[in-house]
Task: structure prediction
Amino acid sequence: MFRNPVFVVTKNHLVTRDTDLLSMLAEHNAAGVSLSITTLDPKLAQILEPRASTPKHRLQAIADLSSAGVPVGVNVAPIIPGLNEHEIPTILEAAAAAGAQFAFYTIVRLPLTVAPIFVNWLENHFPNRKEKILRRIRSLRDRKLNNASFGRRMRGEGLLANQIRQIFRISCRRHGLNRVYAKLETTAFRRHDPNQNELAF
Result:
């Protein structure tokens, strides 16, 4: 193994197939994983992410990786104001109980052609909430559905953005997830195996 540092961000339980490799890397502070969880409601999860692992399986992945000594956290994402932001505390509580050590969050982003697809998705699945959700997203994005400005695109701005930030921070502190994930180490990296010829460029 080259021990190349790796940090995996995923919403799939299949990451646990590499638990043995991630565990070995973790021994050298060279691995970490973040599981994205949007909701704990299996029905809503099926609508939001029909081809991804269920919330239950994502929590199980956190538990399995944590038990194997792999630093693992949760990414509450995407947060869709008016649809799932009320779940931030319960998602963080469940993730911490499963063994998560740190947490992130991301507000839904709607760049370019993603925006009309999202609006159509709302019309199909949540017609009664559509305008409320779009209004709240615009309140975060300077009256637009998207703001690509660095430092703003992931968290938004304004009163609602501050409320979400506060809920997240308080919940992280309550459940011990307010730790900063340690920087990956490169000291154990090996360029090539002893019996492998090195390519010359």
